[in-house]
Amino acid sequence: MSQALSPPIRPEYDRALPPFVEAPVERTLPLPARLWQQGWLRRGLILLALALAWEALARWQDNDLLLPGFGATLAALADGLATGEILERTRISLTVLAQGYVLGVVLAFALTSLAVSTQVGRDLLSTLTAMFNPLPAIALLPLALLWFGLGQGSLIFVLVHAVLWPLALNTYAGFQGVPDSLRMTGRNYGLEGLAYVGQILVPAALPAILSGLKIGWAFAWRTLIAAELVFGASSGRGGLGWYIFQNRNELYTDRVFAGLLLVIAIGLLVETVVFATLERVTIRRWGQVR
Amino acid sequence: MIRFEGAAKTYPGKTDPGRGPTGLPRPALDAFDLSVEAGTTCVLIGPSGCGKSTALQMVNRLVVPSAGRVLVEDRDVAGLDPISLRRRIGYVIQGVGLFPHRTVAQNVATVPGLLGWPRARIAERVDAMLDLVGLEPGRYRDRRPDALSGGMKQRVAIARALAMQPKVLLMDEPFAALDALTRRKMQEELLALWDEARMTLLFVTHSIEEALVVGNRVALLSPHPGRVRGEYNCHEFDLSSIGSRGFQAAVQRLHDRLFEPLPEAAPR
Asked: Which residues of B are less than 8 Å from A187 in CB distance?
């Protein structure tokens, strides 16, 4: 600083601070404010508002064939649950889904493990995901039918396709984002191969992996319902999609809505119960996401 | 003790997938000679790219020298099993590198756990180590790294590195990411630790002040490739001497040496 500071220059001072003894300020919030802080309550209110709007629209339309109300849909759903038909359909769908999902996850992990360890694996992964990720799983269904026939084989094939690519892509991106200091630490402690992937890469990349699992689940669920709509029952054992399609053909619109409602409900359940729990006990507790 | 004998390392040029090798090979370290006596501290200081970290990583064989050799306790590290070598040498890095999914206690217990110690012995050692680095075991044992401040994380990393009570400790800019006050506190604690355990400490830093405080001896490195430009004794300095005239003079001397231009390379 070459230029002199012009007056006025204020005097300096030192001050002896007394010890700070005040208690932290805290008071209870009023009940409505506390209730409003409950996430489930806010979301429940949104759902309730949607249901009311739906019911109102249906009553105004007054045409059960085109738009049955919320009440009628619930009644059809209760009816389906009571006879056990809709439960059986759901069970069929979920069984197939689980098989395809698990197979897809296993393949995705195999592919990414290969990709982190070898150059060829990296090239293979990037080429395959670039080719197949944009390809809608349902577009492979005709081919799958040709190869595997009308049955679970075809469904599992398209499910694997739906899960594998997004999950592999996410997992690989997560692995690449693992900080160098952590990799160095792992190498320093002599972790190699599967121990290295399992103890260093997977925990550090878990946010990306979980989001890949979520995307994979959503893709798989929607692909499955769509696939069932297209070719439906094999040997009289159709899933939830087939239930929807069949009832539309017979103009049981309320049951169509009941089926759709169940598809949504299962999606919500998996998202808010399974994945939310998984996140809570892992990445949230570890502080990787807030 | 640690001894470098003409150690050199040349990294291959970067290889771009698809385009093949790009760029020239980079010599990181050349004809590197340095001895650190057992139970003393030596600080490597120098500008970026002077191969400080490379030298450090040669000691625990994370980097293998292209020429020359590195001895730890009079044995060439090239002839030792790298994994058991690394587990016997403490290693602390700037990025900390704690496992995010493990608690503080599990992090500290990494090597004892890998060696399969009985549970009770591990717990005992973990508590002792946490005490050593000034973290109350009862309060911090079950926390996860995310719930700790930068200084505390680095304390846990130091506790982890010391869990096997190594005779050799390597620290690569361990306090560089900390604020000045925390750094001062950590230096103080490190010196107290060293005073008690008297391990051989090889320490890398960018800070002249830190080098003089932590080191018994400072080695000044030149960049591209790293070579030792000089070694200076500074065992008489500790944290209390920072304001003193002698300390300021030593800082100035190192500072001048650090910024002194290197002789031009002879034209090829």
From this structure: 62
